[in-house]
Design brief:
By secondary structure, this protein is α/β, with parallel strands linked by helices. The protein has 17 helices and 13 strands. It has helices at about 1-25, 35-40, 50-60, 90-105, 130-150, 165-180, 190-195, 205-215, 230-250, 265-270, 320-340, 355-370, 380-390, 400-405, 425-440, 455-460, 480-485; strands at about 70-75, 85-90, 155-160, 185, 220-225, 250-255, 275-280, 345-350, 375-380, 410-415, 445, 470-475, 500-505. Helix 15 links the parallel strand 10 (about 410-415) and strand 11.
C-alpha cells in the first residue's frame, strides 16, 4: 500500500508540475482560471495521499541526490532479468515511509504521561527497605539501564503493584527516544484496543501496518502483561507478536505482576528460556506506601503499632506469682522468636489475656529489623478475603490470593477458632496450615480454644516439638481488671495486656 501511494504521489507531482509550467507560458497557450474558479475546483485529497499544498511544499524541498526527487531507482540489470525495469524505492522514500508510519503510530505510545519516568528519577536510596529487597531493586535498575544502552534479548520485570516495574520499563523507552533511537512503549490492554480500532471505518492506520510495526519494531516495551481480558483473540494476537519476536530474538521488555504459571502456556514456555530472557524479580513493596508498606489491604498490623514488647505489662495486680512468672516466660520466648523466627509459635489463653499483643509485638519487632513481609490477619477476615475472590468483579483470582497467603514469608493468624466452622472454612484452614507446616514457614497462631478442643489435624501438628512452640497464658483477662482501671496500662491501642505461655513439656 505504501509503494502504491508513493507511485501515485509521484504521478500527481509530475502532473502538477506540468500544469504549472503550462500555466506560466505565453498567453496564447491558455488563460488561467479566475481565483474563484480555482478555489471552487479544489477538492480534498484522497485518503492516504497528501493535499496539493503538501505536495507543493514537498516539491520545494531539496531533491534527493540519489534519485533526483523521483523516489525510485532502476537497477542496472540485463534484459530478461525478473526485476528488469522494476522501480526500487530510494532510501529517501523508505525514510519518508518510516516517518509517516511512525507518525500514524504515535497514538499507540503511552509515553506522553510517562516522560518523568527516567533512570535519573528512579530512587534506589531507600534505607528503610530490607537489604535483600533493596538489592533486588538495584539489580532491576542496573539490568534496565544496561538494556536501554545496548538492547539484547528479552528483559522480564516481575513484582507486585507499585514496585517500580513500569518506571523502569518506561525509562528504557524514554532513554532510547531521547537518543534518537526507536522504541515503542505500550500497555498490553491498550495495544489490543489499538489493534481492534484499526477495523473501524474511520481508522487512519491499517491493521496490517500496526501489527507489522509492533512485531518488528527494534525495541518493544510491553507493560502489564497478563492484566488484559483473556479472550481467544487477545491470546492469539499476543502470541503472534511475542512468538515472532522470540523467533527473531528481537529486543523486548515485558513487565507483569502475574505469576508465570498464570500466563498462557505458550508464552510461559518462551519466558522461561534462560538463553534469551533475563527474569528480574523486584521484591520491593509498593513505593506509594513509603516506609510503612504493610501487607496490602488484608493485613491489620498497622492497627497494632503500639503493641510492642516494651508496652507488654508483666506486673499485674491480683495475679499470682505463678501467673506473673508465666507472663515473663511467654514474653521472653516471644522476643526470642522475633529475633530468630522459625517454625510455629502458638499462643493459647483466655480472651484478653495478651495473645494478640504478643503476636503483634513479634510482628512489630520483625518489622523494625527490616522484615516487612508480614501478614497479620484475624482468621474470619482471612476467610472473607478468600470468599471475595469468587466475585466476578474481583481483580485477583482465588487461586492467586490463596497462594499468596500460603507462601507469605511470615503469617500471623489471630483468633483461630472464632471463624464460622463450615466445611469449606475447615478445608481452607487445613490447606493453608498444612502447607506452611510442611514448608516450615514461620507462623504465629493465637487462639482461645483449649488444645483439647482443637481440630485433630491441627493438634497433631502443634504437637510436633521439633517445629512448634506452644505456650499457654495462665493469667486472667487484662480487660476490665484493676490494672486497666487504675491506668497502669497505656492508652487503648498501646496494647492489651496478655499473659505468658508456659512451654509445654
Amino acid at each position: 500500500m505504501d509503494e502504491l501511494n508513493d507511485l501515485l504521489r509521484g504521478f500527481t507531482d509530475g502532473m502538477a508540475g506540468r500544469s504549472e509550467r503550462g500555466a506560466g507560458g505565453s498567453p496564447g497557450q491558455g488563460a488561467l482560471p479566475a481565483e474563484g474558479d480555482r478555489q471552487g475546483r479544489q477538492r480534498e485529497a484522497p485518503p492516504g495521499l497528501p493535499s496539493r499544498s503538501e505536495r507543493q511544499a514537498h516539491a520545494q524541498l531539496e531533491p534527493c541526490p540519489a534519485c533526483g526527487g523521483a523516489g525510485f531507482l532502476l537497477e542496472d540489470l540485463p534484459v530478461g532479468h525478473p526485476d528488469f525495469g522494476k522501480p526500487i524505492p530510494c532510501h529517501c522514500k523508505l525514510d519518508e515511509r518510516r516517518s509517516r508510519r511512525r507518525s500514524r503510530l504515535s497514538n499507540v505510545h503511552n509515553l506522553e504521561e510517562l516522560t518523568r519516568y527516567t533512570f535519573e528519577a528512579f530512587d534506589t536510596d531507600l534505607s528503610w527497605l530490607a537489604p535483600h529487597k533493596l538489592e533486588s531493586l538495584v539489580r532491576a535498575y542496573e539490568a534496565a539501564l544496561a538494556f536501554a544502552e545496548k538492547p539484547s534479548g528479552w528483559l522480564l520485570l516481575t513484582g507486585g503493584y507499585g514496585c517500580g516495574k513500569t518506571h523502569l520499563a518506561a525509562a528504557v523507552a524514554n532513554h532510547r527516544i531521547e537518543n534518537d533511537r526507536s522504541a515503542i512503549f505500550v500497555v498490553v490492554p491498550d495495544l489490543l484496543d489499538h489493534l481492534r480500532a484499526t477495523f473501524g471505518p474511520n481508522s487512519e492506520t491499517s491493521y496490517d501496518d500496526l501489527f507489522d510495526e509492533i512485531r518488528n519494531t527494534p525495541v518493544l516495551v510491553l507493560d502489564d502483561l497478563g492484566v488484559q481480558v483473556v479472550t481467544p483473540w487477545a491470546q492469539e494476537k499476543l502470541f503472534q507478536i511475542l512468538n515472532h519476536r522470540y523467533n527473531g530474538q528481537l529486543p523486548t521488555v515485558l513487565t507483569t505482576n502475574q505469576r508465570l504459571e498464570d500466563l498462557d502456556q505458550r508464552l510461559r514456555s518462551r519466558l522461561q528460556d534462560q538463553d534469551l530472557v533475563r527474569n528480574v524479580k523486584i521484591l520491593a513493596p509498593d513505593h506509594r506506601a513509603g516506609a510503612n508498606p504493610g501487607q496490602g489491604d488484608l493485613s491489620t498490623l498497622s492497627l497494632h503499632a503500639g503493641q510492642r514488647f516494651e508496652t507488654f505489662d508483666v506486673q499485674r495486680r491480683n495475679s499470682s506469682a505463678q501467673a506473673l512468672a508465666n507472663l515473663r516466660d511467654v514474653k521472653q520466648a516471644a522476643a526470642a522468636f522475633a529475633d530468630s523466627p522459625g517454625g510455629w509459635f502458638v499462643l493459647i489463653g483466655a480472651s484478653g489475656a495478651g495473645k494478640t499483643h504478643l503476636a503483634a509485638a513479634i510482628s512489630n519487632a520483625m518489622r523494625a529489623s527490616g522484615q516487612d513481609d508480614i501478614m497479620f490477619v484475624v482468621v474470619p477476615d482471612l476467610l472473607d478475603y478468600l470468599r471475595a475472590a469468587f466475585n466476578p468483579q474481583s481483580p485477583v483470582p482465588y487461586d492467586r490470593r490463596f497462594d499468596e497467603l500460603r507462601r507469605t514469608p511470615m503469617l500471623v493468624l489471630d483468633d483461630l477458632g472464632t471463624e464460622s466452622a463450615t466445611p469449606w472454612a475447615k478445608e481452607k484452614l487445613f490447606q493453608l496450615l498444612n502447607f506452611r507446616h510442611t514448608a516450615h514457614l514461620p507462623t504465629v497462631i493465637t487462639t482461645s480454644t483449649s488444645e483439647e478442643r482443637l481440630e485433630p489435624w491441627l493438634r497433631t501438628r502443634i504437637n510436633d516439638v521439633n517445629h512448634c512452640q506452644v505456650w499457654t497464658i495462665r493469667a486472667e483477662s487484662y480487660r476490665g481488671s484493676a490494672d486497666q482501671a487504675g491506668g497502669l496500662r497505656s492508652p487503648r491501642g498501646q496494647g492489651t495486656s496478655r499473659s505468658r505461655p508456659v512451654w509445654r513439656e
